[in-house]
Amino acid sequence: MTLVSIRSTLLQSTVTKPLVAAMETRPDWFYPIAFLVSLQMATVFSEFRQVGHVVLHALRIGLTRHNYSGPPRPSDEWGGLVVIASFLLGVLFVVRRLYGRLSRVRNANMMTGDGKN
């Protein structure tokens, strides 16, 4: 797998220079397309936020047995994002713990000579 740095000459020569040239020669085409690309990048995770809203709403109704029907609260707006972030942090914690245990087992096997190459 090859990693491409932002400052790499390959990236600058193949991507950046043609984009800058297009921006300077055809701004009437470049800026609408750049807007659509940036809009797509901004809205790509909206479905995940909707899933988070549904999970948060289900948790609220399940825990309180009460359905709120007033104006939206900040927790309603940002709650889905908080639920998703909490889930991802939990997964990260579990993966790090399992990876730590796995590396300790591998190191112990290598020290005793039980590790197979």
Give the uncertain stretches in residue-range form.
Answer: none
What is the global morphology? flat
- Overall mean pLDDT: 76
Strand content: under 5%
Number of domains: 2
| Total of helices | 4
**Sheet having the most strands:** none
> How many runs of DSSP E, i.e. beta strands?
0
Give the % helix. over 70%
N-C termini distance: 23 Å
Task: Supply Rg.
Answer: 24 Å
Q: Give me the secondary-structure category.
A: mainly alpha
Question: Which keywords apply here?
Answer:
flat; 4 helices; 79% helix
Question: Layout of helices and strands, plus pairs?
Answer:
Elements: H1 9-25, H2 27-43, H3 46-64, H4 74-112
Give a written overview of the molecule.
With 117 residues, this protein is mainly alpha-helical. The chain has two domains: 13-43, no CATH class; 46-112. Helix content is 79%, strand content 0%. 2% of the residues are buried. The model has no long low-confidence stretch (mean pLDDT 76).
What is the structure about, briefly put?
This protein is mainly alpha-helical and 117 residues long.
